[in-house]
Amino acid sequence: MAVLPEVRKSYGRLKNYVDGEFITPTTEKYDPVYNPAKDEVIAEVPMCVKEDVDSAVEAAVNAFEEWKEVPVTTRVRYLFELKNALEKKFEELSRVTTQNHGKIIDEARGEMRRLIENVETAIAIAYTLFKGERLDQIATGIDEELVREPVGAFAVIGPFNFPALAPFWYIPYAMAVGATLVVKPSEICPIPMSEICSIFDEINLPPGVVNIVHGGKEVGEELIKHPDIKGVTFVGSTPVGRAVYKLAGEYGKRALVQAGAKNFVVVMPDANLDKAIPNMIASFYGNSGQRCLAGSNLVAVGDIYEELKKKFVEAASKLKLGYGLDESVGMGPVVSRKAKERILWFIEKGIEEGAKLILDGRNPKVPDYPNGYFVGPTVFDDVTPDMTIAKEEIFGPVASIIRFDTLDDAIEAINKSKYGNAAVIYTASGAAERKFTRSVKCGNVGVNIGIPAPMAFFPFAGMKESFFGVLHGQIDCVDFFADRKVIIKRWLG
Amino acid sequence: MPTLIISFIVETGKKLSETLDSIAEVKGEAGKELKKIAEDLRKDAEQLERIFKETVVELSLEPIEGFDVDSLREEISNLLGSEEKVSGLIKAISRLETIYTSFARSIASISPETSMQLKKMARKKEKYRKFLEALK
Questions:
Q1: Half-sphere exposure of A102 toward its Cβ, with a 13 Å CA cutoff?
Q2: For chain B, what is the mean pLDDT?
Q3: What pLDDT does residue A1 have?
Q4: Tell me: domain A16-259+466-486, CATH 3.40.50.10770, correct?
Q5: C-alpha angle A33-A36-A40 in degrees, rounded to nearest 5
Q6: Which residues, at least 6 apart from A211, have a Cβ–Cβ distance to it below 8 Å?
Q7: Of A169, A261, A185, A234, which Cα lies nearest the Cα of A452?
Q8: Over the stretch A74-93, which tens digit does the pLDDT of each residue have?
Q9: B47 touches chain A (CB under 8 A)
Q10: pLDDT digits (tens, 9 = 90+) for A410-437
Q11: Chain A, chain B: beta-carbon pairs less than 8 Å apart
Q12: Tell me, what CATH number does B93's domain have?
């Protein structure tokens, strides 16, 4: 099958998007941006410095004063324009995402779909959730009301695994409520957000409402420390998330931090394996395992172990590796050489600690793409919960099979994990399902669903060290960008 | 994977439309009707493309067995490329009717909207086929 054309071969030196213009940053340091399927440089990303951050924040703060005064109906019209423009560029942005990230084209299309759904949901909340409350006659002649007001300029720090979608867990909601933003996209996958900036330009979004500053850790820190930034949202690993949360706390900022994961997929003896296996494969190997909702520990409860192992390995070994722009490919490369090395380290660690490697993805042969950062589907058997590969986030296409006698044992292991992002059960039993969903300390729970990704109109949950903060991403962040003001009044006559 | 099948159907719809356009040029009075059919096919393909974009997540997660897209593509391409254009077109349309009906059944539990659109497209194909047969 033919490979879909790339939108462009090269994206050149990326620029910041500040105050409605693409500008060359002051920094002279640029890092290469790769196509991970080819190990080919396709852009250069500026590693911005404090001066670049300051100018973006200034633009966001100045814009806030006017943007919050723009009637909600007008702000919503910009969101409609944004949705329509994104629909028109749906395929183009999907291909750019595949080219920069490595995920297969349908996964990139799925990312775009979920992104657009966040814009649609933000349109809906503007006229509903953002409304205030009022109670007449709380005492004689006195009424009380609550109004929501946008707080100011915020920072958004995005991850590499969903480089276009994750910033949109926040951008449209901030726009809807009248807040303004400075977004720092992932420096590994900065191209999709950079391309989306031309859409902001195309729809004539007022200057400064959404700004983009490229760079690494330093940019993130400068944003959080900046006195005019009211808060930060972050999506990424737990160690970095914890550091972001701590720094935000130190500077008195709001923080909404979605962090790492180690997700258990529990398979009960009564599970319908023929129907469930394709779904499980998508959970463990979709996005090459680089999802915070990806399955990682495959738990066989009771006597389903042999059949599950056989069918899972058989299906995993059939996945075709290749460049994601080839529509017949089932799994793309991982995002970077460094990510590949990290995953390979975990595989070695698993072997060293005594797990049995029954499907080895270390040296996959990928015709036409010999230099890509490919790791094939990998399965470990005889894994125990105390092993490193069962405890730590690998963020790659590695499944660890763990055996338990009972559902209670499985729930205990899930709850002992430091992470609490997702947990999944495959079963035909209502009783098992109820016990599981009520007992697991995880934010996103799947029942016969391998990737329990909440839709935009539900919060993207998370517990324990998978989440720091109070409000979550997607619809929940409305109150993150807003303050509540209570007004108690009477008219003296 | 359903997404591959839908891509194939969209692509084939556009090809059929192009072929009809080219026949319309040489078919005199009937040409106007052929142009209308070509336009209709293009619209159907665009509608399916829209549904595809809106349900891609569900479509990419659930497998469907029994459709070998590569051989279907080859088969339709051969029919559309045959020397006798109208006959090839009729055979291709007839084959697509069967594919749409069968795929509509398989996809119904994953994407009812896709299923409904395909059934509608299959019905229209029957009408188009009859019109083309009358031209022979």
A1: 36
A2: 88
A3: 66
A4: no
A5: 60
A6: A16, A17, A18, A19, A56, A59, A60, A180, A181, A182, A183
A7: A261
A8: 999 999 999 999 999 999 99
A9: no
A10: 999 999 999 999 999 999 999 999 999 9
A11: 36
A12: 1.20.1260
Phi, psi of A146 (to 5 degrees): -120, 130
Question: Count of CB atoms within 10 A of residue A93's CB?
Answer: 24
The tokens for A492 are 């003296």
CATH code linked to domain A263-447 = 3.40.309.10
Pick from A208-212, A485-489, B105-109: least confident: B105-109
What's residue B81's pLDDT? 86
Cα–Cα–Cα angle for A484, A489, A492, nearest 5°?
165
pLDDT of B127 reads 86
State both tokens at A159.
Answer: 């991850």
**pTM of the full structure:** 0.93
- State how far the Cα of A344 lies from the Cα of A400, in Å rounded to an integer: 14
Closest alpha carbon within chain B to A90:
B53
Domains identified in chain B, total number? 1
| Contact criterion met (CB < 8 Å) for A90 and B53 | yes
B135 in contact with chain A, both atoms CB, cutoff 8 A? no
Q: Which of A75, A24, A337, B11 is nearest to A345 (CA)?
A: A337
Q: Is B77 on the interface with A (CB under 8 A)?
A: no
Query: Cβ A109–B70 below 8 Å, yes or no?
Result: no
- In chain B, what residues touch A109 (CB-CB under 8 Å)? 3, 53, 56, 60
Interface predicted TM-score (ipTM) of this complex, two decimals: 0.77
Q: Which residue has the tokens 């665009």?
A: B46
Query: Domain limits of chain A?
Result: 16-259+466-486, 263-447
Question: Which chain A residue is nearest to residue B52, measuring alpha carbons?
Answer: A109
pLDDT digits (tens, 9 = 90+) for A177-204: 999 999 999 999 999 999 999 999 999 9
User: How many residues belong to chain B?
Assistant: 136
Range of the domain at B79: 2-135
